[in-house]
């Protein structure tokens, strides 16, 4: 599916799902007297919960786990937008007051981003329009842009939190195209760019804990497996089982907050 057609499909799905999407996790509240934890989720279609019709995606599953594990009432604001790249998220954190005020008030912040950065570059590589003598220039540019955006995203979140104790959680990226790219001979070219992107994410440090979603979905980089059991019918987004795995990986990181992330951290 071409990028324009993919975006049209996603927009139609967004409209349809929004009519049925719960505004809070089904199990993310306890009693009126319990402590309250404001939780803000940032990201793309993964955070939005695309195709997880039963539970609304990993964000809502994680919110429910947070409530169950802490006994707190979790107030969730999910600001994930299907189709967003790292540039879109960075722009929102810098310029949209809904995002800025929500992060300022959140004690728990999760985010997933970067998959669409690489997806668009992969599409261009397959089409032969990526640039460079090796048709890989757009892939290199995607990783370079992501590195800059990722560091800026972390700085923006840290700045908005102002040094207050916060549970910062993110995740690396899984690869849904192992079977297709291995069959076509593209995998040795494309997978290293995903690995570079994940290395950037995993090197964040400074109190940001990273769920190892790639290992859960794909195993190793040397012998990656196709995560068929965790993918929806589109072969790209997680199904309910995939979202459950992502939420479980986040839950396994615990809920210890970072006291403060230096603004210059990443």
Helical fraction equals: 40-55%
User: Rough shape?
Assistant: globular
What is the ordering of alpha helices and beta strands? HEHHEHHEHHEHHEHH
Mean pLDDT, to the nearest integer, reads 88
Main β-sheet description: 5 strands, parallel
% residues in beta strands: 5-15%
Low-confidence stretches at least 5 residues in length (pLDDT < 50)?
Answer: 1-31
What does this protein look like?
- The protein is of the alpha/beta class and 266 residues long.
- α4 runs parallel beside α7, α6 runs antiparallel to α7 and α8 packs antiparallel against α9.
- The N terminus is likely disordered.
Detail the topology: elements first, then pairings.
Elements: H1 3-18, E1 36-42, H2 45-48, H3 58-70, E2 73-78, H4 86-95, H5 97-105, E3 108-111, H6 115-127, H7 137-161, E4 167-171, H8 178-184, H9 187-202, E5 209-211, H10 213-218, H11 240-251
Parallel strand pairs: 1-2, 1-3, 3-4, 4-5
Helix pairs in contact: 3-11, 4-7, 6-7, 7-9, 8-9
Q: Tags for this entry?
A:
alpha/beta, disordered N terminus, 266 residues, five-stranded parallel beta sheet
Concise description?
By secondary structure, the protein is an alpha/beta fold. The protein has helices at 3-18, 45-48, 58-70, 86-95, 97-105, 115-127, 137-161, 178-184, 187-202, 213-218, 240-251; strands at residues 36-42, 73-78, 108-111, 167-171, 209-211.
């Amino acid at each position: 599916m071409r990028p324009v057609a993919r975006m049209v499909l996603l927009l139609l799905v967004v409209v349809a799902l929004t009519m049925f999407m719960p505004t809070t996790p089904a199990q993310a509240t306890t009693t009126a007297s319990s402590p309250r934890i404001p939780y803000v989720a940032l990201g793309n279609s993964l955070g939005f919960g695309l195709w997880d019709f039963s539970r609304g995606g990993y964000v809502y599953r994680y919110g429910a786990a947070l409530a169950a594990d802490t006994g707190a009432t979790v107030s969730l604001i999910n600001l994930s937008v299907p189709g967003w790249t790292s540039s879109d998220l960075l722009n929102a954190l810098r310029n949209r007051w809904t995002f800025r005020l929500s992060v300022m008030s959140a004690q728990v912040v999760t985010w997933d981003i970067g998959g669409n950065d690489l997806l668009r570059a992969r599409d261009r590589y397959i089409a032969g329009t990526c640039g460079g003598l090796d048709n890989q220039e757009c892939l290199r540019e995607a990783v370079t842009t992501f590195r800059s955006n990722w560091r800026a995203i972390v700085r923006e979140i840290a700045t908005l939190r102002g040094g207050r104790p916060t549970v910062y959680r993110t995740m690396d990226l899984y690869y849904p195209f192992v079977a297709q790219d291995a069959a076509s001979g593209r995998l040795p070219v494309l997978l290293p760019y995903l690995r570079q992107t994940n290395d950037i994410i995993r090197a964040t440090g400074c109190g940001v804990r990273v769920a190892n979603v790639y290992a859960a979905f794909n195993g190793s980089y040397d012998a990656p497996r196709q995560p068929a059991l965790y993918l929806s019918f589109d072969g790209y987004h997680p199904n309910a089982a995939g979202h459950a795995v992502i939420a479980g990986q986040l839950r396994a990181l615990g809920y210890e907050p970072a006291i403060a992330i230096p603004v210059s951290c990443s």
